[in-house]
Design brief:
mainly alpha; DNA Binding (I), subunit A; two-stranded antiparallel ribbon; 5 helices; binds zinc ion; HNH endonuclease signature motif containing protein
Amino acid sequence: MVWLALAVMTALMPKGTSVAGTAPSSAAEVLGGMVDNVVAAVALPGVAVVVLGIVGAVLNSRDVRRRDLIRRFTRQQHREGMARAGGQCEMESGFGRRCRRPAEHGDHFYPWSKGGSTSLQNFVAACAQCNRTKRARIPSPSQQQRMERRRRDYVAPSSSVSVGERQPLS
Ligand SMILES: [Zn+2]
């Protein structure tokens, strides 16, 4: 008799709770819900990583498609770029002021790896230290404006102060 009563109770219990509301009506559903939550917790960051990966790959392939076939500046470009800078580093050294060190490298203002052109327009003279810290970051529009403003002070009137050039998407 006791086991029969228990069987009836267990048979009725889930019905009672499922009628009562939205609470999970059985252990299996509770477990199922937990599994769903775990799956969601694992899958969502996974999906986010995959999406970010795809976005990154697309952006990177666009950069690669932009790349200038020529990476190295010609001697002529190097000479003209260095002369335009008066042999001094053109990069920024705090408070928007120009770096005081002598220029040692010809650098792509827009990084070559990001589609920056190997042109005099995209050439900046840089000291070794600024060249290292700049790496392959795309300069912000305000960095570009500040560079052009600084250039007005030292670039010969015959040459342009504008800086930065990117290859079109081919
Ligand atoms: Zn410098």
